[in-house]
Amino acid sequence: MTGVAPQSAVDPSSAGFQKNAARYQELLATLRERMAVAMAGGGDALMRRHIERGKLPARERIELLLDVGSPFLEISPLAAWGLYGGGVPAAGAVAGIGLVEGQHCMVIANDATVKGGSFFKETVRKHIRAQDIALQNRLPVLYLVDCGGAYLPQQDEVFPDWGHFGTTFYNQCRMSAEGLPQISAVFGGCTAGGAYIPALSDEAIIVQGTGRIHLGGPPIVKAAINEVIDGESLGGAAMHTRVSGVTDYLAADEREALAKMRQIVRHLNMPKHGSAEPPRAARPPRFDAAEIPGIVGADLKQPYDVREVLMRLVDDSELQEFKPEYGATLVCASAHIHGRPVGILANNGVLFSESSVKGAHFIELCNQRGLPLLFLQNITGFMVGSEAERGGIAKHSAKLVYAMATARVPRLTVLIGGSYGAGNYGMCGRGFAPHFLFSWPSSRIATMSPEVATTVLTDLKRASLKGPGAEHEIDDLARETTEQFTRQSDPYYATARLWDDGIIEPAQTRDVLGLCLQVIAQGTPRATGPSPVFRM
Ligand code: COA
Q1: Quick check: CB of 235 below 6 Å from ligand 1?
Q2: In this predicted model, what pLDDT tens digit does every residue of 395-412 receive, in sequence order?
Q3: Nearest CA to ligand 1 atom 19
Q4: CB within 8 A of 129, min separation 6: which ones?
Q5: What's the gap in Å between 148 CA and the centre of ligand 1?
Q6: Rg (CA), the chain
Q7: What is the pLDDT of residue 273?
Q8: Which residues are CB-neighbours of 184 under 8 A, at least 6 positions away?
Q9: Local structure of residue 101 (DSSP, 8 states)
């Protein structure tokens, strides 16, 4: 594609395109519906009660905190989707990256309309994931606190272990020690774990009247030491700002607290990477991103040329493709997104030895040139069979895994189709800690597809089962396996459990990636020093 104007073979008027687009519209309608539910928080009645108490919804607080017109790169809005009978929208917290005083900040806001803002296990995961992103990208963290601490019925899943509530506090301390500011504003009742969020912050603001901080609320105090005291005297804003010194600033209302937080950020004296210009002027793609659904469709078995997707994501649709005539099932290309350079690895079929080593070689080039890597996953796995094994597929695929895992540059991943088996690993799945990982609503993630899993498990069973009733048992197993793998490979199953940073629409992908590239530009390099290129 070098030196020639990019050409697309897509015909939007064709029957296949139209059918794909129509089917994808249904997926997008479902996604939008679910996003609307998650964004509504704990529902009308609880939201009304919240507002009647003079409090603002968590999302409105964020809007008031961010610079006017700032984008908000939200993380896992559908966390806990489908769990707890739908009773914990967004896992009771909103998290994402936005600009405050021109500075990229991670914002984590509890939603008190969802079980008093208490922490379910998905809330803890989301909170820790947001902190990890902040640490990796050197972002200050702004906590908008309105939190009842650990969700007590789940105490064994949120309290004692590594990766539970304690880790969120460990992270606060460690980030502060690394010079990443931790600032809290307290808007509601913060009990026990909820109290430690402001208490472990570098600076804390509290709202008069509604903000409360106590390790144990009045009922616990009564039970523990038989002291009878009201909440305001025990942990109110005036007491904490004037007597205990737990908080540093008293705000008359929520707006004042948010304005104070902005003022603190204004004086942080950190480099303002957020507004840094990209190295090259951004140019829109020559082909419309709205056409992507018509190209990819919802049926993962339907092949398409991934270059058609890339041409709708990158600046001017310009791809400098590496080894275009070798290892055809992995497209490797340098490009720009919103003016920022990136090295892309995109599946175009099953990974063979040739495509694997080509990917490893390309990653080395990106290391040497300082190009962040973008993995677009649509992969059933690496090639199997005697020919592939004799050709050393295990060692060649390992080269791709090794090069990807040890890459010195930031890595981004988008699941645009299937994410199966070792293909998930080679293409920088969650286990390999990419800086960000998003999914499309048409994606699927599992060790293998439902059909393959059903064949594998029933074959194993058949070998051990004989006699009357065996076939009946095998039929049951086949049905159960297909159902299990279908349910568990669904992207909503994945995003609910925070296996990704959120489901995004194909047409939003370019902008999301542009924001990610802007954010990671300010992070810590994964490694420094010379980076050789070994020809594979
Ligand atoms: N664990 C389990 N459920 C909790 C909870 C927690 N930590 N905190 C609040 N909830 C639940 C409440 O039981 C209530 O559930 P319901 O709607 O099914 O009745 C819902 O969340 C809302 O709580 P409510 O007390 O009505 O809200 P509020 O806005 O008046 O008060 C708090 C919010 C957080 C101040 C208050 O709920 C509280 O103090 N919770 C207990 C905190 C605690 O002791 N935490 C210890 C954790 S280690």
Answers
A1: no
A2: 999 999 999 999 999 999
A3: 115
A4: 75, 76, 95, 498, 501
A5: 5
A6: 25
A7: 65
A8: 142, 143, 144, 145, 197, 198, 201, 203, 204, 205
A9: T
